[in-house]
Amino acid sequence: MAIFADRADAGRELAAALEDWRGTGAVVAGIPRGGVVVAAEVARTLQLPLVATVVRKLGAPAHEEFAVGAIADDVRVLNDAARRSSGVSPEELASVEERERAELRRRTALFGSSRERIKGRTVIVVDDGVATGASATAACRSLRAQGAASIVLAVPVAPADWRPPTDAVDEYVCPHRARDFWAVGEFYDDFTQTSDAEVVGLLSDDLRG
User: Fold this and answer.
1) Cα dist. 54→19, 22, 31, 106, 108 in Å?
2) How many Cβ atoms are within 10 Å of 149's Cβ, its own excluded?
3) In this structure, is residue 107 part of a structural domain?
4) Domain range for residue 184?
5) CA dist., res. 114 & res. 3, Å (int)
6) Does residue 88 belong to any structural domain of this protein?
7) 82-110 pLDDT, tens per residue?
8) What is the total count of domains within the chain?
């Protein structure tokens, strides 16, 4: 059952749950692509700067939307249970990772690096939802390694029984923790894929503001 009209709607609801960070000097880091749309609403509402933190999911070859892991700058997260259940071989995983590393470099060049803007600051990491949690975990660990003072993971919806690893996240905010969870998209009326151009536009709007 859909909860949100679209990602912007989810961002506005998530911002209400993050009101304590209004004007604190924290940085909102959206995970491209869709997470940046949610993050842009959070940043605008709370009057905080917006950056992108690029992550790539490692999808199972037979079902690419099913994440067996994720990568970010100098970070690799594997979900061993998901890898075993999907039957992905080490060779298949290596091939997927090689392809996704190339895409990670492309997107980082396009969307920019957040490294200099997040050092010593609280970073609110935002995505449009959590399924396996691999992407969110990779993003949080990468930002911590880059010098973030503390990490808040904030998502509109996630499985009720999921929690981020304590070494990656200092605080977790999720307004909707769903017991029946199949995919993030089921909670949105409009879950249209976000384009590179839209992400670039949102990041540019923040810099101009």
Assistant:
1) 25, 24, 6, 10, 6
2) 13
3) no
4) 7-54+113-208
5) 31
6) no
7) 667 677 788 888 899 999 999 999 999 99
8) 1
* Residue 198 CB-density burial (10 A; 0-12 exposed, 13-18 middle, 19+ buried): middle
- 3-class DSSP state of 143: helix
* SS3 annotation, 53-115: CCCEEEEECCEEEEEEEEEECCEEEECHHHHHHHCCCHHHHHHHHHHHHHHHHHHHHHHCCCH
Is 19 within the bounds of a domain?
yes
- In single-letter form, the type of residue at position 71 comes to I
Task: Tell me the sheet residues that pair with 77.
Answer: 70
Angle between helix 7-17 and 34-46 (nearest 10): 40
Query: Which pairing describes strands 63-72 and 56-60: parallel, antiparallel, or unpaired?
Result: antiparallel
Cα–Cα nearest to 140, from 30, 25, 16, 19: 30
- Residues comprising the chain, all counted: 209
Given this model, what pLDDT does residue 63 score? 73
Whether residue 163 is preceded by a cis peptide bond, meaning omega within 30 degrees of 0, is no
Question: 168, 202, 156, 173: which is closest to 50 by C-alpha?
Answer: 202
Residue 24 has pLDDT above 80, yes or no: yes
Distance CA 67, CA 85 (A): 11
Asked whether residue 73 is assigned to any structural domain, the reply reads no
